[in-house]
Structures are given as structure tokens and as C-alpha cells.
Amino acid sequence: MERTYVMVKPDGVARGLMGEVLSRIEKKGLKIVGMKFAVMEEAKAKEHYAEHAERPFFAGLVEFITSAPSLSLVVEGGDSIKIMRAINGATKPAEAAPGTIRGDFAVDTGRNLVHASDSPEAAEREIKIHFGDAALISYPRCDDACLYE
Ligand code: GDP
Ligand code: MG
Asked: What is the pLDDT of residue 97?
């Protein structure tokens, strides 16, 4: 089963949207196998967003991500990487379709509520940054048998 890293960013926590995000993931049929509620350390935020280090918004992004608590998740399921990107919606809320988290709840690119890994390599890297060797917990869901052919 594929795993991906998902984050409810500080704006999502502050707006009381953790439950909404968790609910969408669970209802879709994906399984939450890791969860951590914390204020992200600056070093981790910089590593997480390293690909954007040269972009003009990088400093503000790191400052915001480390300013208040966020919710880190590891989400498991078939095609979970692509599915979570689809659930989140396009990076720019103006381009995010209704029915996606960003399309339904966000207005500004710098406050787009959620993150999800964009490739298998990114997922592995990001899970390692945020969960290290912490145990991820696999468990049966009673709908497992209905979700897959
Ligand atoms: P994502 O993978 O959909 O989150 O998008 P990116 O990897 O392109 O960018 C990472 C994050 O940086 C986005 O989710 C935004 O929070 C932020 N970001 C990206 N582009 C911009 C921008 O032009 N301005 C600002 N303020 N933030 C941006
Ligand atoms: Mg990205």
C-alpha cells in the first residue's frame, strides 16, 4: 500500500478545519496510519520546503509554517499520493475546483490550508523528515474488503 505525507497547515488548524480534513480522508477510504500535532521546528520546515529555497515566498512560508501548530499525517491506500493531491486541489485556490479542500475553503495561495506529497520520492522523503523512525501503525478497517477489487 502506498503512503503519503499530508499536513493541515497552521491556517487549517486555526480555522478549525482539522476534523474536516480528517473526515474527507477517512470517508474517501484512505487510512490514517500516523498523526502528529506539533509546532514544526524551523529546520524541519526548511528541509520540507527545500525545493522552494530560492523562491521569494520561502522565508515567509517557513515563518508561517513554524508560527503555530500544524497536524502531520501519514495516509495509506492505493494511489494515496495522487488521491491526496486531488482531495487538496490546485495550489492556487482560485484554480482549485469546488469539492476540493482548497476549492471549498481557501482564497489565498499563501494560506491554502493543506499539503500533500507530490511523488513517491517526495512522500518517502517527507515521511522521514516528519516521522523519522516513529512507528506508523497499520490496522484493519472494516471497509477494507469493500474498497478494493
Ligand atoms: P503544493 O505542493 O500544492 O503545496 O504547492 P508548491 O509545492 O508549489 O508550493 C508549496 C507551498 O508554498 C504552497 O502550498 C503555498 O503555501 C506556498 N506557495 C507556493 N507558491 C506561492 C506563491 O506564489 N506565493 C506565496 N505566498 N506562497 C506560495
Ligand atoms: Mg509541493
From this structure: 98
Task: Name the residue among 139, 25, 46 with its Cα closest to residue 88.
Answer: 25
Catalytic residue list contains 115: yes
Burial class of residue 95 (count of CB atoms within 10 Å of its CB; 0-12, 13-18, 19+): exposed
pLDDT score for 102: 98
Check if the beta carbon of residue 7 is closer than 8 Å to that of residue 126: no
CATH number, domain 2-39+71-147: 3.30.70.141
Question: Which residues carry a binding-site annotation?
Answer: 9, 57, 85, 91, 102, 112
Per-residue H/E/C for 53-64: CCCCCHHHHHHH
CA of 63 to the centre of ligand 1 (A): 13
| pLDDT, tens digit (0-9, with 9 covering 90-100), for 35-82 | 999 999 999 999 999 999 999 999 999 999 999 999 999 999 999 999
Indicate which ligand has the atom closest to the C-alpha of 11: 1
Ligand 2 centroid to Cα of residue 91, in Å, is 8
